[in-house]
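Q: Hi! First time doing this. I have a protein sequence and I read that you can turn it into a structure. Is that right? Here it is:
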Amino acid sequence: MAAGETAAGETATDATATDATAADEIRGVAQGSAPTPLSVLDLVTVGSGRTATDALRTSVDLARFTEARGFHRYWVAEHHSMPGVASSSPAVILAHLAAHTDRIRLGSGGVMLPNHAPLVIAEQFGTLEALAPRRVDLGLGRAPGTDGATAAALRRTERLHEGADDFPEQLAELTRFLDDDFPDGHPYRRVHAIPGPVQGTSPGGVQSAHRPPVWLLGSSGFSARLAGVLGLPFAFAHHFSAQNTVPALDLYRESFRPSAVLTEPYALIGVSVLAADDEREARRQVLATGLNMVRLRGGRPGLFPSPEEAEAHQFSPLEREFVDSWTANIIHGTADEVRTGLDGLHKRTGADELMLTSHAHRGELRLRSYELVADAYGLPTA
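A: Yes, that's right. Below is the predicted 3D structure, encoded as structure tokens:
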């Protein structure tokens, strides 16, 4: 082997360049006066009186808008059997968004790995990579993204604990499919995820071996530690597990081992945000979010309620306590109040990126929330 050459035949310079490119796909650049890169998490919210078509059109408008304003990435989250959330098929939605955007990174926040065969995910995201080269992220979670009965229907088994327990093995299998590098003798050695790297090694092949970077998602310490040990980027669900945010990020950083993907830890956090033109309107919208969560936690998920529905609802003392606790973690108010809240959260957590998720009954209110945040931080306007 020649000096300066890797086992794969690349020169050391080429390998370094490849690592730098991979890192650039992960690390964003803060725009305007924002303390970190800002990104978007979309659950494709369907309000009462609205359709899934309405919600998906809002997602296209929002992706275009946030791309124009310098947001770094746009993720879609997998959920099932929830009438108010139309994001059950992230890969399908991402393909649609790819056709309507040019630069913003697109990804899953996340795909729930135990719900799917690893080969299927590798094929879906290989297809997305072919549609939007070097713009796709593959965020993976180990929760079902739904209730137990729906998870059983998705997985065709009632032994749901096995999906989470087997997550590291499923992740390793998925990575092998993405890289097309099962060892000789493995039963899947001749099974290939297509589109994928094997097309570049076939006679006449020119397909790039590049594949989407993998992120691990979590709301506890399990995925934080695993992401750290594997040297992968980590996304924490602060928006529904705020009390665990700092401990999980500390665990990730303490566990981190440099890898070919990252030399240093990189963590983003999902944050619930609702900015409005006046504080009262923001409170009304957030109360509707509270009612939505009361229904969901009570096993009665429905379309996202309007503020009028929330104001008319007779909350029990226990429901009111839950709503107060839940909405305390939503950064809401005027643009200046939201900016102050985000700045404070960044200071407390040291997150490398803030991924904002905004829920409102009407799509134009969600769009307005992101517009106000972008203006508050002086993000680019073209």
